[in-house]
Design a protein that fits this description.
Elements lengths: L1 H15 L22 H5 L27 H5 L6 E3 L6 H12 L6 H14 L9 E4 L4 H7 L3 H12 L3 E2 L4 E3 L11 H8 L3 E3 L10 E7 L4 H12 L5 E7 L1
Parallel strand pairs: 1-7, 2-3, 2-6, 6-7
Antiparallel strand pairs: 4-5
Helix pairs in contact: 5-7
Length: about 240
Amino acid sequence: MFGRSSVFLKGLVDLLYPRTCAVCKKKLTLTSVDGIICMDCWGKIKKNIPPFCRRCGRTLEKKSPNKNICSGCIKNPVYFDRAFSPCLYEGPVKDLVHQLKYQGKDYLAPVLTGLMTDFIREFDVPVGLLDIVVPIPLFKTRLRQREFNQAELLAKNIAAIFKKKLVSDNLIRVKNTQTQTELTTPQRRSNVAGCFKVKEDSAFEGKNILLVDDVLTTGATCSEASRALKKAKANIVFVMTAAS
């Protein structure tokens, strides 16, 4: 009887307040993804496809002067060893990231995590070699404003799925940097210079680390965080983001 009542109430709620796609806001059907995004919007997600740049993980341009590394990574060296991201930062994925990051919709994190974990499995990202998962931290005042760290939500999900240890309190952000959105590449690098610190080097010494964030644009933030990890004598630092 209780079960029937629950089904009835759920049906009544869906009738009065039908669920809509997080991207296009149209009413969802039974074939939606996780009851969050419609299949039309899901199909519009643009993926990074091989061949990948062996540094930033983006699709390598056919006219690239180097067969393995894109021109952007040649011009702007980074401290991480390699980055991976399943999607281009545009369209539905950009919308989902913005809602997660700026509108407090933490329930969107599993959808983005699903894209990341599917990519890891499809392209055999060597997570078996990794020891710990570390999210890019927020500065304390920004964390209070948002009430959660979107990178930590993604990192926590990935760590649980691949049975890796999550370390979310040892890499810290010690400077309240301005948002990177409107800055040029040199300005981004200058903005985040020296903004990360490791509290206890021993936790990272000799470890292979998966550093997780929502988006990789110029790579300045992840590179600076990787510099702090390498200074603490971390071994390999891979970066995983939902989009780039």
